[in-house]
């Protein structure tokens, strides 16, 4: 007869430690972005890697932080948010890229999310669609102050989180959201905001603009995030995001 097996020391999907993580996490889509940001931290250490999830722990201006990648899309990202929270994270900032929905919001600008349209394809399975996806107000204020300190061009507003990157046969409600004043589109933020609100945690997001989604995303070959203007803005936005993260008590 064998007894119950001991619980593994890491969580199953991200392979991060089960407990003891810092309370503050910067979450990003791209594992390479996580590695680049970890390179800026003091005493950075890889604490887990599995699938699209690559996680580091280190310090930014003496505050312990986690930097972790969640890949593309809300369902996969939710797995990361859940395991980070399980391991001790209480404050999340997503630092990603997004397409602009307004002509005056241009490549390299930052968008600070106040709320998100829940077209993310997964949170409808967590709570009714009428429930709002809102950023914790302190994250908006901290990101606004950090962007100002770094003299980064930043816009605040509602972001559209959409599960499918490119439309196919079904027409997008693009015009409706443009008229409603939605300013950018990406793929995971609403998932984070709803998850955090349901768990009583803090969350927000800041996004680097890498094109105009009203034009480029109708033909996916028109989308090119691998340009210097985007690369430079990601570097500048990293400092904005980390400064805002550690400014949150
Ligand atoms: O740059 P990241 O954080 O991955 O964010 C955006 O980029 C990906 C699409 O290219 C999606 O994940 C979208 O949300
Ligand atoms: O989802 C995304 C991410 C970046 N840029 C876009 O246009 N869409």
Automatic annotation (TrEMBL):
<dbReference type="GO" id="GO:0005829">
    <property type="term" value="C:cytosol"/>
</dbReference>
<keyword id="KW-0328">Glycosyltransferase</keyword>
<dbReference type="Pfam" id="PF01048">
    <property type="entry name" value="PNP_UDP_1"/>
</dbReference>
<feature type="domain" description="Nucleoside phosphorylase">
    <location>
        <begin position="25"/>
        <end position="243"/>
    </location>
</feature>
<dbReference type="GO" id="GO:0009116">
    <property type="term" value="P:nucleoside metabolic process"/>
</dbReference>
<dbReference type="GO" id="GO:0004850">
    <property type="term" value="F:uridine phosphorylase activity"/>
</dbReference>
<protein>
    <recommendedName>
        <fullName>Uridine phosphorylase</fullName>
        <ecNumber>2.4.2.3</ecNumber>
    </recommendedName>
</protein>
<dbReference type="InterPro" id="IPR000845">
    <property type="entry name" value="Nucleoside_phosphorylase_d"/>
</dbReference>
<keyword id="KW-0808">Transferase</keyword>
<dbReference type="InterPro" id="IPR035994">
    <property type="entry name" value="Nucleoside_phosphorylase_sf"/>
</dbReference>
């Amino acid at each position: 007869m064998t007894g119950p097996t001991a619980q593994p020391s890491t969580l199953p999907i991200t392979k991060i430690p089960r407990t003891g993580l810092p309370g503050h996490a910067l979450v990003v889509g791209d594992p390479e972005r996580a590695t680049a940001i970890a390179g800026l931290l003091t005493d950075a250490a890889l604490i887990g890697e599995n699938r699209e999830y690559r996680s580091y722990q280190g310090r930014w201006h003496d505050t312990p932080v986690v930097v972790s990648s969640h890949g593309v899309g809300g369902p996969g990202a939710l797995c990361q948010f859940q395991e980070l929270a399980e391991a001790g994270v209480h404050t999340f900032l997503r630092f990603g890229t997004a397409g602009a929905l307004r002509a005056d919001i241009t490549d390299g600008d930052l968008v600070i999310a106040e709320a998100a349209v829940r077209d993310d394809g997964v949170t409808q399975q967590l709570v009714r669609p009428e429930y709002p996806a809102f950023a914790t107000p302190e994250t908006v204020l901290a990101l606004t102050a950090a962007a100002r300190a770094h003299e980064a061009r930043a816009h605040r507003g509602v972001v559209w989180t959409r599960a499918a990157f490119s439309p196919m046969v079904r027409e997008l409600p693009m015009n409706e959201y443009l008229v409603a004043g939605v300013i950018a589109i990406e793929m995971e933020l609403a998932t984070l905001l709803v998850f955090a609100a349901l768990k009583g945690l803090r969350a927000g997001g800041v996004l680097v603009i890498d094109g105009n989604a009203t034009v480029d995303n109708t033909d996916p070959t028109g989308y090119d995030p691998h340009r210097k203007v985007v690369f430079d803005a990601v570097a500048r936005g990293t400092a904005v995001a980390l400064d805002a993260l550690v400014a949150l008590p």
